[in-house]
Amino acid sequence: MKNSFLMRNPSTLIFLTALAAFTIVVTLLSEAFGLGLISTSFVKTLGKTLCLGLVAVAMDLVWGYAGILSLGHFAFFGLGGYMIGMWLMYERTRDIVISSMADAPIPPTTDEITDAIGHQIFGVVGSSEFPLIWAFADSLTLQLVLVVVVPGALAFVFGWLAFRSRVAGVYLSILTQAMTLALSFYLFQNDSGLRGNNGLSGLQNLPGLEAVPQEVVSIWFLWASALALGLGYLLAAWIVSGKFGSVIRGIRDDEARVRFLGYSVEGYKLALFTLTACIAGIAGALYYPQAGIINPAEIAPIASIYLAVWVAIGGRGRLYGAVVGAGFVSLVSSWFTGGQAPDIPLGFYTIKWVDWWLIVLGLSFVLVTLFAPKGIAGLFDLVSDRKWPNRHGADLGPDAGALREREASE
Amino acid sequence: MSTLLEVSGVSVTFDGFRAINNLSFRIGTAEMRAIIGPNGAGKTTFMDIVTGKTKPDEGRILWGEKSLSLRGMSEARIAREGVGRKFQKPTVFEDQTVHENLVMALRNKRGPFAVLFYKPTAKDLARVEVLAAEIGLEDALWRKSGELSHGQKQWLEIGMLLAQEPRLLLVDEPAAGMTPAEREHTTNILVEAAKTRAVVVVEHDMEFVRRLNCKVTVLHEGAVLAEGRLDHVTANQDVIDVYLGR
Ligand SMILES: Nc1ncnc2c1ncn2[C@@H]1O[C@H](COP(=O)(O)OP(=O)(O)O)[C@@H](O)[C@H]1O
Ligand SMILES: [Mg+2]
């Protein structure tokens, strides 16, 4: 059955094959398992890029397919990161605290250990108490559940309020930005319980696995990210291939018509918004251990706007476009902003890419939107010669009506 | 014959303009009705009210044997109760195939989870084939509906309407943009449908209305001006004054 699904969706098969090939090649070139041609930090960059690809798939589902321009999905991504970060930080600090107390004359009590961990983690924000939200931080299982549940619950509550009042279009985009902004402001506060602007750090160190070198860990995360992207892609492709896909594309193109067919548009939007928030949370939970640190700046409204830009440049409404866009733009972006791109001296002025990159990106976005709405993925059409009608129901009126639209306009 | 839909004393005002004024209307479970009236008489607004798109300021809208009130129900809920609608301008999902359009319309569970795990049954597929043949699109099943001609889109929408198996069909100007042969075919489909369900047709074309051979309601300024057989209402002096005489 799965085979037949892949056969019916060749682009999914091609994508998964390419992803597998990519993962194998990177592994073979890595320091840990191969020729050592790729540095560990670049392996991490590639692993992170796969996570960005996954959140882009979620964005494409919600925007490219259902037409909901959410500018808040990076908040869900960040929340996923925070949830796994809490466990990583707690466990590692506990290990450190226990080993440092090991040679104390009197064995420490559990309370003393907890206090010491609290002191270590929250010292930077002038506190040593564990806030309530850290209640499950000692359990990997529960924090993994929260990776999905916290973004999902926030999306559900937000979506329920917004969709029920039929907030749509640009107003919904603004509302999602407001949500993102509010969340990042909240997290910036020292008493948010998540270490304010310090964020959570040291996430690259896996508790209990200190002996494993980072070059190996980086490959593990690359594999995990590739697996998550592959599964997420498969899920998304399955969702959009059936009647559910028909309905959400219908919502994108003519929401009122879908209502008159008897589908509860709000219910569909809510389901999809929540599901994609969960996917974004998983992507974030894999991303931040590779980044090593998460802080509230990651949730800044602009991050979610970038996400929309990636998907637009990659090509909306086809999942591989989102992945290509996220990968391409984020890699190029880090090349330019990372200072690797050579400055261009013009004599009177030197173009520093670190400053100018944003403008280039913004301009590309505008140009793609205006002149190549299918994005980079549109290039694949040249190969597959895929055509889609771009006639949006122009009413021909009674006289020309019996003609096809093309005949009529000739 | 028992009553399927009973609208009584309904009014709606847009920015002080009374588009529907104390309108009353009733239709049985298997009945054909034509609504005629000059432009701006409120025919489309009437359909908007019944389908829940426009909320009336006052009045009652009762539905079915249990006299359920449609007022306050969402559009989707009303559609699930069995009210199907065809719009004045053909609205089909242009980016999707004829087949996808029809499958979406088929009478099946509408909830997100049921739809996510939906697999077309042999019965569903057969039904799509039958409908496609009925609307003359059996060879176009796998084409994107955006590629269809205006008349074909009208038919696809009629096909979607039939696929929904509604108890009440509201059809807004179905013959617009059709050739005479297509009009006749449309008449036949509607007359056939009215044998088992209620059908309300808004139409300008008198020839078309005559062929429907049914009771006619004349709307004017948001209220019923006359009602009866076509010959009867066209002989009515008020109707001649506001509509036919112009
Ligand atoms: N949403 C609306 N807002 C304001 N005026 C409206 C609205 N819908 C309809 N009207 C007005 O109500 C009147 C009836 O319109 P309509 O029902 O479309 O007429 P018909 O379909 O009989 O030609 C028209 O004068 C129209 O301008
Ligand atoms: Mg009208």
Automatic annotation (TrEMBL), chain A:
Record localization: Cell membrane
Q: Which UniProt keywords apply?
A: Cell membrane, Membrane, Transmembrane, Transmembrane helix
- The transmembrane residues are 42-63, 70-90, 140-163, 170-188, 219-240, 267-287, 293-312, 319-336, 356-383
**A matching Pfam family:** BPD_transp_2
Give the top-rank taxon of the lineage listed in the UniProt record for this protein.
Answer: Bacteria
Membrane topology, record value: Multi-pass membrane protein
Question: Among its keywords, does the record have Membrane?
Answer: yes
Q: What InterPro entries is this protein classified in?
A: ABC_transp_permease, ABC_transptr_urea_perm_UrtC, LivM-like
Statement: the UniProt record of this protein carries the keyword Chloroplast: no
Listed GO cellular component terms?
Answer: plasma membrane
Q: Which GO terms describe its molecular function?
A: branched-chain amino acid transmembrane transporter activity
Name the predominant localization: membrane
Q: What is this protein called?
A: Amino acid/amide ABC transporter membrane protein 2, HAAT family
TrEMBL record, chain B:
Q: Which InterPro entries match?
A: ABC_AA/LPS_Transport (IPR051120), ABC_transporter-like_ATP-bd (IPR003439), ABC_transptr_urea_ATP-bd_UrtD (IPR017781), P-loop_NTPase (IPR027417)
The record lists the membrane-crossing segments as none
Is Kinase there in the keyword field?
A: no
What highest taxon heads this organism's lineage? Answer: Bacteria
Q: Where is the ABC transporter domain?
A: 5-246
Query: What keywords are annotated for this sequence in UniProt?
Result: ATP-binding, Nucleotide-binding, Transport
Can you cite an annotated GO cellular component? plasma membrane
Could you tell me what this protein is called?
Urea transport system ATP-binding protein
UniProt organism field: Roseovarius lutimaris
